[in-house]
């Protein structure tokens, strides 16, 4: 059936105006309009309503036109056979169309849902060429593929090249755009976007702009993201390569849209694709993550045990691991703790701020280990979420080997309320011994001299010198003290 569909489209592409009018009249469609409009209607008919009767009529009209092949051999007339028509290199039943080169003079650009781009070679016989694939973007949900990634082919030796593309939106696609909500004034959530990447079929490609890129939609140029300024000396500014929104410049009707990509030809090969997408917000991605991305607390507890399990090859036994309840991104308490499943650490970051950050400047790098943390690998830590609700007076916890946890209080809180006994400084006896625990001397008299902390160091030193002079006069020279404390009370612990 696929071969018959290709054959029918090739036949329709070779029809004259009279042939197209006869075919459209046969099925009760409008016969008025220019040739490219007739071609569009006929190809839509083949694409969506190609019954055996319609295919038989197309074949009949084609054979009628080329019935006199023997006479044409004697007096050849130039015409394009179906085999000579270039075919889209990534043909499939849903979007395959014939394509012509833009460099050919006097070309009628047919405006069907498949889209013509410049200078692509015809499909090799019985050969399947690998397709260029683009990476999935979390903030864009693809609704339709308007143009498969197609290589930009230079038409001459000039450094600046132009590649036009003509296509039309279906009534359903127009309705989706019109009825979509507005993200902000003038920006619809359902959009037609242009994506550009390197022509590399080995793996899904990230968006990458060619040099000197400019995009013209119908009669107006579309804005392309510029460069990020660099604050570091000697570092070149970076350009964010994102899908380019074309919706506000397109005709939201049955009219054809012409897109022209201007690009610099400097040796690297690029491919472009057109997509109908729905743009998502960080709040929507967060809600989706809360719905499908929560990891059960028991699974998280088992992960903690696995992390702290004794390694027989290790000489150091790990008895616990500390995890901060403060987000490393914004230095605030975690609200939705998450991390990537590929990360080896237990430390989490806040999903709310992480998604907001990547909505503005997508990097998808873990702020803890600086490794890739894409959206489809994020999980919400159910165990840490539970801990956050139960432990509101601590900023750090410690996981133990059995999977349990305990809060870790701040050091300053512990120092404000000492629990240890206080060592009181006092004068020594004749033999240089320390006072007895009850603070009394041999005669039961108080022998301890408490240091007044309200005095400054200079006054304290003067008083100590005076006391030493008096002691020298009364008792003679004293033995040296084992330790000297100038000021303050010393904790015994």
Automatic annotation (TrEMBL):
<dbReference type="GO" id="GO:0007417">
    <property type="term" value="P:central nervous system development"/>
</dbReference>
<dbReference type="InterPro" id="IPR023321">
    <property type="entry name" value="PINIT"/>
</dbReference>
<dbReference type="GO" id="GO:0010804">
    <property type="term" value="P:negative regulation of tumor necrosis factor-mediated signaling pathway"/>
</dbReference>
<dbReference type="Pfam" id="PF02891">
    <property type="entry name" value="zf-MIZ"/>
</dbReference>
<dbReference type="GO" id="GO:0003714">
    <property type="term" value="F:transcription corepressor activity"/>
</dbReference>
<dbReference type="GO" id="GO:1905168">
    <property type="term" value="P:positive regulation of double-strand break repair via homologous recombination"/>
</dbReference>
<dbReference type="GO" id="GO:0000785">
    <property type="term" value="C:chromatin"/>
</dbReference>
<dbReference type="GO" id="GO:0003712">
    <property type="term" value="F:transcription coregulator activity"/>
</dbReference>
<dbReference type="GO" id="GO:0005737">
    <property type="term" value="C:cytoplasm"/>
</dbReference>
<keyword id="KW-0863">Zinc-finger</keyword>
<dbReference type="GO" id="GO:0003677">
    <property type="term" value="F:DNA binding"/>
</dbReference>
<dbReference type="GO" id="GO:0016925">
    <property type="term" value="P:protein sumoylation"/>
</dbReference>
<feature type="region of interest" description="Disordered">
    <location>
        <begin position="69"/>
        <end position="89"/>
    </location>
</feature>
<dbReference type="InterPro" id="IPR003034">
    <property type="entry name" value="SAP_dom"/>
</dbReference>
<dbReference type="GO" id="GO:0031625">
    <property type="term" value="F:ubiquitin protein ligase binding"/>
</dbReference>
<dbReference type="GO" id="GO:1990234">
    <property type="term" value="C:transferase complex"/>
</dbReference>
<dbReference type="Pfam" id="PF14324">
    <property type="entry name" value="PINIT"/>
</dbReference>
<keyword id="KW-0805">Transcription regulation</keyword>
<dbReference type="InterPro" id="IPR004181">
    <property type="entry name" value="Znf_MIZ"/>
</dbReference>
<dbReference type="GO" id="GO:0061630">
    <property type="term" value="F:ubiquitin protein ligase activity"/>
</dbReference>
<dbReference type="GO" id="GO:0006357">
    <property type="term" value="P:regulation of transcription by RNA polymerase II"/>
</dbReference>
<dbReference type="Pfam" id="PF02037">
    <property type="entry name" value="SAP"/>
</dbReference>
<keyword id="KW-0833">Ubl conjugation pathway</keyword>
<keyword id="KW-0238">DNA-binding</keyword>
<dbReference type="GO" id="GO:0006974">
    <property type="term" value="P:DNA damage response"/>
</dbReference>
<keyword id="KW-0808">Transferase</keyword>
<keyword id="KW-0832">Ubl conjugation</keyword>
<dbReference type="GO" id="GO:2000042">
    <property type="term" value="P:negative regulation of double-strand break repair via homologous recombination"/>
</dbReference>
<dbReference type="GO" id="GO:0120186">
    <property type="term" value="P:negative regulation of protein localization to chromatin"/>
</dbReference>
<dbReference type="GO" id="GO:0061665">
    <property type="term" value="F:SUMO ligase activity"/>
</dbReference>
<protein>
    <recommendedName>
        <fullName>RING-type E3 ubiquitin transferase</fullName>
        <ecNumber>2.3.2.27</ecNumber>
    </recommendedName>
</protein>
<dbReference type="GO" id="GO:0061157">
    <property type="term" value="P:mRNA destabilization"/>
</dbReference>
<feature type="compositionally biased region" description="Acidic residues">
    <location>
        <begin position="459"/>
        <end position="476"/>
    </location>
</feature>
<dbReference type="InterPro" id="IPR036361">
    <property type="entry name" value="SAP_dom_sf"/>
</dbReference>
<dbReference type="GO" id="GO:0060887">
    <property type="term" value="P:limb epidermis development"/>
</dbReference>
<keyword id="KW-1017">Isopeptide bond</keyword>
<comment type="pathway">
    <text>Protein modification; protein sumoylation.</text>
</comment>
<dbReference type="GO" id="GO:0008270">
    <property type="term" value="F:zinc ion binding"/>
</dbReference>
<keyword id="KW-0539">Nucleus</keyword>
<dbReference type="GO" id="GO:0033235">
    <property type="term" value="P:positive regulation of protein sumoylation"/>
</dbReference>
<keyword id="KW-0479">Metal-binding</keyword>
<dbReference type="GO" id="GO:0000122">
    <property type="term" value="P:negative regulation of transcription by RNA polymerase II"/>
</dbReference>
């Amino acid at each position: 059936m696929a071969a018959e569909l290709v054959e029918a489209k090739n036949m329709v592409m070779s029809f004259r105006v009279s042939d197209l009018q006869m075919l459209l009249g046969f099925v009760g469609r409008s016969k008025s309009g220019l040739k490219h409009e007739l071609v569009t209607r006929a190809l839509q008919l083949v694409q969506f309503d190609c019954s055996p009767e319609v295919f038989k009529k197309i074949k009949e009209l084609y054979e009628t036109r080329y019935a006199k092949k023997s006479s044409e051999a004697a007096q050849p007339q130039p015409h394009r056979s179906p085999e000579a028509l270039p075919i889209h290199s990534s043909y499939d039943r849903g979007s395959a169309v014939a394509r012509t080169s833009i460099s050919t003079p006097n070309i009628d650009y047919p405006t069907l849902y498949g889209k013509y781009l410049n200078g692509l070679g015809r499909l090799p016989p019985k050969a399947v060429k690998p397709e260029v694939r683009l990476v999935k973007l979390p903030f864009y949900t693809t609704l339709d593929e308007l143009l498969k990634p197609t290589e930009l082919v230079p038409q001459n030796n000039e450094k600046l090249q132009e590649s036009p593309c003509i296509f039309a939106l279906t009534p359903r696609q127009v309705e989706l755009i019109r009825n979509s909500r507005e993200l902000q004034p003038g920006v619809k959530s359902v959009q037609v976007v242009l994506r550009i990447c390197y022509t590399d079929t080995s793996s899904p490609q990230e968006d990458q702009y060619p040099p000197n890129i400019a995009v013209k939609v119908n009669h107006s140029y579309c804005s392309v993201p510029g460069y990020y300024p660099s604050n570091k000396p000697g570092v070149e500014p970076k350009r964010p390569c994102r899908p380019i929104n074309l919706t506000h410049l397109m005709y939201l009707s049955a009219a054809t849209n012409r897109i022209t990509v201007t690009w610099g030809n400097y040796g690297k090969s690029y491919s472009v694709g057109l997509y109908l997408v729905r743009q998502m917000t960080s709040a929507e991605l967060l809600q989706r993550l809360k719905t499908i991305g929560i990891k059960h607390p028991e699974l998280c507890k088992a992960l903690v045990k696995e992390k702290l399990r004794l390694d027989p090859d290790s000489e150091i036994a790990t008895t616990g691991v500390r995890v901060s309840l403060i987000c490393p991104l914004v230095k605030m308490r975690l609200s939705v703790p998450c991390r990537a499943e590929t990360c080896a650490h237990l430390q989490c970051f806040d999903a709310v701020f992480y998604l907001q950050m990547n909505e503005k400047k997508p990097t998808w790098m873990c702020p803890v280990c600086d490794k890739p943390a894409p959206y489809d690998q994020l999980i919400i830590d159910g165990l840490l979420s539970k801990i956050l609700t139960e432990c509101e007076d601590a900023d750090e916890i410690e996981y133990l080997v059995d999977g349990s946890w305990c809060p870790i209080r701040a050091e300053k809180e512990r120092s404000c309320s000492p629990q240890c006994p206080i060592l009181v400084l006092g004068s020594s006896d004749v033999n240089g011994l320390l006072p007895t625990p009850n603070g009394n001397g041999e005669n039961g008299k108080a022998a301890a001299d408490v240091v007044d902390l309200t005095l400054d160091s200079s006054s304290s030193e003067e008083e100590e010198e005076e006391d030493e002079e008096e002691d020298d006069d009364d008792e003679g020279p004293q033995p040296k003290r084992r330790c000297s404390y100038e000021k303050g009370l010393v904790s015994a612990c």
